[in-house]
Description:
Layout: E1 4-6, E2 11-13, H1 22-33, E3 39-49, E4 52-61, E5 66-74, E6 79-80, H2 91-101, E7 104-105, E8 141-145, E9 157-163, E10 166-173, H3 181-187, H4 191-198, H5 206-220, H6 227-255, H7 259-280, E11 289-290, E12 293-294, H8 300-324, H9 328-334, H10 342-348, H11 353-356, H12 364-367, H13 373-376, H14 388-410, E13 430-437, E14 442-449, E15 455-461, H15 464-474, H16 483-490, H17 494-498
Parallel strand pairs: 6-7
Antiparallel strand pairs: 1-5, 2-13, 3-4, 4-5, 8-9, 9-10, 11-12, 13-14, 14-15
Helix pairs in contact: 4-5, 5-6, 6-7, 6-14, 6-16, 7-8, 8-14
Amino acid sequence: xxxxxxxxxxTIPISDIPEINYDTFFDTNTSFIYDNVERHCVNYYGYQFNxxxxxxxxxxxxxxxxxxxxxxxxxxxxxxxxxxxxxxxxEKFEREIHENFGIDYVDHPWLKPLRYAHNxxxxxxxxxxxxxxxxxxxxxxxxxxxxxxxxxxxxxxxRFICNGEQILHLExxxxxxxxxxxxxxxxxxxxxxxxxxxxxxxxxxxxxxxTAFSHIWESLCxxxxxxxxxxxxxxxxxxxxxxxxxxxxxxxxxxxxYQLGSSVFGRLxxxxxxxxxxxxxxxxxxxxxxxxxxxFPFSKLLGERLKEVFDKFEPDFTEMNEExxxxxxxxxxxxxxxxxxxxxxxxxxxVGMSARMSGVNRDIRVSHLYCLxxxxxxxxxxxxxxxxxxxVQIRKHEVWQSIKHIRNLLNSIPEEISxxxxxxxxxxxxFTLSLxxxxxxxxxxxxxxxxxxxxxxxxxxxxxxHNWLALALAVRNNEISDFPVCNKxxxxxxxxxxx
Length: 499
């Protein structure tokens, strides 16, 4: 067998992952995805192993709920055929492997630096000498935006090639704030330190990333989370989705100069994040999620308080959406702006909302179940036009859907169960993988332990890793004045990408 089949949050001995030669590795993983939109790569990375590089590829089947894992040993000096030349969804994975280890892909179409990690293979490649794509023409001009932006936007550079006001090409260059997150997981030995690192991967996805880390650690330790823990995580994930989607609807209104929508949606976000502070002491839910325990038990009193918050939130949210989506000037900015086709999102392997906007049914809450989602009968919100309108519609409907899920959860609040003491004994020589559907989409954490059960390698993938290219495609043939609303309708993470 060229691969092993696992489920979400399953731990296996690392020796159970078949090691195959590169040609077989290539054929196995590309054939999984070729002409099959229900399968996609959730992670593909390498790490140092016995003076060579071990490559591990994880392909998820959204229909059968399986994850296919295979591995291959290569030398740093090898020149390899790229998966990307056959399937473009592997583009960033291979760029990162090249950047980290110097492995050369002879037919990769875009083998440029990706993150500028401090421990990258070739430190002569720097942001300052990045080679942007260019077109030699007297009729075209280039527009550079960033890396420093106004407001609260994080650092990233956008290089537009335009014909007048029309965007012909956008290249997005990131890597300005690499913090060495993955290395910190190995260096910090205390579980609390590691959980704190997880919740600081992306400040708007605290619950999503910390839940993924908690699942990883619990799986490695053979710990089955009790219902009260799963309840808290499920509720917090959906509450985070409500808060961010509402805030992004405000930001989208700002970018089309609709001040009423900007103000109202911005105001509506506040009681949601304030509720996190009532529950856990932090408006972004830092400190709320921890492996093996329910850090802040959810009480019936908290449940009644949350119902009050939603009873006030929902009428105003509904009324503001009725105003926004009946406003001709708003619809003219949303409809047919920033379109990404079904074929394009399939080819580049987008996840979450950036897949569902164009008709791809990709939602980990259904395809690779975890927490209490099996009880919620969740049905993904799917749109088909791939434009700003589809993206804001998904946000609107997912807010209502998340509130419905939370209200259902509040009908049966579980009693607290004490923490388990076996959580500090991870299995040695093991591999595990966790998938969580954050509000942006699929989060993936992978871990490998050594002979003593300590972390040997830790890999993080934020959904933005898949989706930045979708933004670059979305703005083609749009006017450059449409870029802000296109950008905010995705609201991708810079720090989640750079790590």
